[in-house]
Write a structure and sequence with these properties.
alpha+beta, eight-stranded antiparallel sheet, four-stranded antiparallel sheet, globular, ALKBH2
């Protein structure tokens, strides 16, 4: 798997950067050029540990988590992680794998608005208006290979992902454009990796308080996943900020 290119850390923390161009790499970030107009920006220390632990405590205690039933190959199964959905009023409904989550209001969760503001400060050109939260209670919880390419996000969507708690691996692999070869929500990524020899792949270890931004053609040309990790013995909460068009 390929390594990321490091932009030297100049001492900025909590997303601080003198660079206001959202298309440039920001100081302290690791930029990975995936080619063909796709790239990843990764900040291992987007938020301070103190803030990150405070947010994790809030998320575990105050978010109305649910573990819904989804459909995989037409069959119902329980999604292997907890979820919650926040969105600005009046947006198009989100639907995936036969599941339509209820949209909660930003006003009900002020800390989530605080985090959203932090993301917008780091990437001034972004205008996120929805948030899908995922909670992985143990290493048995995962998300299979998929792309966030729903039509409601438009072409070339930016997606900002912030992680709290247990470190987990985030994998990317080149999309084959065959639905049967990877885009399976209910199948553990570890099974697919064994069938993907020769396919270009990247791996990121998502740290507590980190931010990973996917942009350009990433959702069109790449699949991503968070595989099972039996040694991951504690909870991870992930926030994915998106813009519904």
């Amino acid at each position: 798997m390929k390594q990321q290119t490091l932009i030297p850390d100049s001492g900025f923390t909590d997303h601080q950067s003198p660079n206001s161009n959202p298309n440039d790499g920001l100081n302290g970030g690791k930029v990975t050029d995936l080619g063909n107009g796709s790239d990843i920006v990764y900040f291992p220390r987007f938020l301070t540990p103190e803030k990150s632990w405070g947010y994790l405590h809030y998320l575990n205690k105050h978010i109305p988590w649910t573990r819904p039933t989804i459909r995989v190959f037409g069959k119902p199964c329980v999604q292997p992680r907890d979820v919650c959905y926040i969105a600005t009023e009046g947006l198009k409904e989100l639907s995936y794998s036969g599941y339509k989550p209820d949209a909660h209001s930003w006003d009900d969760f002020p800390p989530l608005k605080e985090i959203l503001d932090e993301v917008h400060k780091a990437f001034p050109g972004s205008h996120f208006n929805s948030l899908l939260l995922n909670r992985y209670n143990s290493g048995n919880d995962y998300v299979g290979w998929h792309a966030d390419d729903e039509k409601l996000y438009g072409d070339n969507p930016e997606i900002a992902s912030i992680s709290f708690g247990c470190e987990r691996d985030f994998l990317l692999k080149k999309r084959s454009y065959k639905k049967s070869q990877g885009e399976v929500e209910g199948e553990p990524p570890s099974k697919r990796l064994k069938k993907s020899n020769g396919v270009e792949q990247y791996s990121f270890n998502l740290k507590h308080g980190s931010l990973l931004l996917m942009r350009g053609n990433t959702q069109r040309d790449w699949l991503h996943s968070v595989p099972k990790r039996l040694k991951a013995g504690s909870t991870r909460v992930n926030l994915t900020f998106r813009r519904v068009m």
